[in-house]
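Quick one - inputs below.
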Amino acid sequence: MNTVERHSRRRSTLLILNALALIAWQATEISLIHRYFEEGYLALLPPTLIILWFITLLALLLKPAERIFRQQLEDELTQHNRRSAMIAGYWSVMMSTGLALVAAGTVQVEAIDIARANLIVGASVPMLVFAFLERFDGVGQ
Amino acid sequence: MASDSEKLCNNLKVHRTDAGLTQAELATSVGVSRKTINTVENGVFVPSTLLALKIAKVLGTQVEALFYLEL
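Output:
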């Protein structure tokens, strides 16, 4: 594994951690389960997740100093994978919005929870799909 | 535009090994990752015209010698 591949693997690991931290953090804010995280040891979980999310976000912004490595890390296969991840994100948000629409017809759902669910899906699916594509040799094969 | 029955194939591996280059060396020469060269060689990823021209230049050949359509 060369330097570029190590950076690529580091980036995909950070993306997975960032996405999982975001999912877990936002899930603790959902109205139905938020009360369980208001006191006791569990109250420490949301701020811990916010810190983890923020640290991984900052780490993702760090780029290698050498221009050639930065160029190789953002080559056309990477851009292709980013486009695929964004398309997957778009369709997952469409599906979650559709599900929310169906659910809202039968059960009472807080508008903020629907917005939060869409935020979780829309932000995390592209990150996870891109990380998966980066890790498993390009375009999913 | 290629139809569904047409497939883009390549002789990249042959030309690269003839030139005595590893995937990593060719990747560095054209400014992409080794993974990109690997996926192009395996027919998983279709490179842009610009990248195909760069690869052909580094290998001292023509794009048509590297890539061809299999009907």
